[in-house]
């Protein structure tokens, strides 16, 4: 049975998807949008990949290049998770009115703590440091013997992370038995 146009397009999209995923980890490989067309962007991405991984730079996907792309892609997919540090710096202080990623994580941790302790308040995970978030932080600060400012500095953050890590390790140990 002959190789169809649709099959070729699917294989090119698979190649482009792998290269695109690799580009998130290796900045030397440009990001491309998988479209099933082996055009200029794909050639540049393949050539860049070949340069990054010490292969002959042709821009063509020969068997050696394909096998290396698959190998690198799979190695990224089957590794231990990388820790993600979201707290900006030791001098940063989160407070009412702030918005963003760090606030989402902070609120998620407060909810984890709230789900394990009946009297700990839960908050809406909305990415905005609001009065409910500040009140939940004050509750936690009181319980761990810190001044009840309602703000989250690195000390409060570290206590929250430690608490959540402890709860998660306890839950994991409980599931293994």
Structural features, described:
With 177 residues, the chain is mainly alpha-helical. It folds into two domains: 73 residues, Muramoyl-pentapeptide Carboxypeptidase, domain 1, CATH 1.10.101; 76 residues, Muramoyl-pentapeptide Carboxypeptidase, domain 1, CATH 1.10.101. The protein is 57% helix and 0% strand. The protein is built from six helices and no strands. Helix 4 packs across helix 6. The chain is elongated, with a radius of gyration of 24 Å. The mean pLDDT is 90.
Give structural attributes.
177 residues; mainly alpha; Muramoyl-pentapeptide Carboxypeptidase, domain 1; 6 helices; 57% helix; 0% strand
Helix content: 55-70%
CATH architecture of the largest domain: Orthogonal Bundle
> pLDDT under 50 segments (min length 5)?
none
The tally of beta strands, per DSSP, is 0
Q: Regarding CATH, which class of the largest domain? A: Mainly Alpha
Tell me the number of structural domains: 2
Strand content: under 5%
Give a concise summary.
This protein has two domains: 5-77, Orthogonal Bundle (Muramoyl-pentapeptide Carboxypeptidase, domain 1); 101-176, Muramoyl-pentapeptide Carboxypeptidase, domain 1 (Orthogonal Bundle). 57% of the residues lie in helices and 0% in strands. The protein has helices spanning 5-25, 40-52, 63-77, 101-116, 131-143, 154-176.
């Amino acid at each position: 049975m002959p190789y169809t146009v649709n099959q070729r397009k699917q294989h090119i999209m698979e190649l482009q998807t792998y290269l695109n995923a690799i580009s998130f980890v290796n900045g030397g490989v440009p990001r491309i949008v998988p479209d099933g067309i082996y055009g200029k962007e794909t050639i540049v991405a393949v050539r860049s990949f070949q340069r990054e991984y010490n292969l002959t730079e042709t821009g063509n996907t020969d068997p050696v290049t394909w096998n290396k792309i698959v190998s690198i892609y799979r190695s990224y997919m089957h590794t231990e998770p990388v820790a993600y540090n979201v707290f900006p710096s030791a001098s940063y202080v989160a407070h009412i009115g702030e918005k963003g990623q760090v606030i989402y994580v902070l609120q998620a941790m407060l909810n984890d703590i709230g789900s394990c302790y009946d009297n700990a308040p839960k908050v809406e995970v909305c990415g905005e440091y609001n009065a409910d978030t500040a009140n939940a932080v004050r509750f936690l600060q009181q319980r761990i013997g810190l001044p009840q400012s309602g703000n989250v500095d690195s000390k409060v953050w570290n206590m929250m992370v430690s608490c959540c890590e402890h709860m998660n390790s306890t839950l994991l140990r409980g599931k293994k038995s």
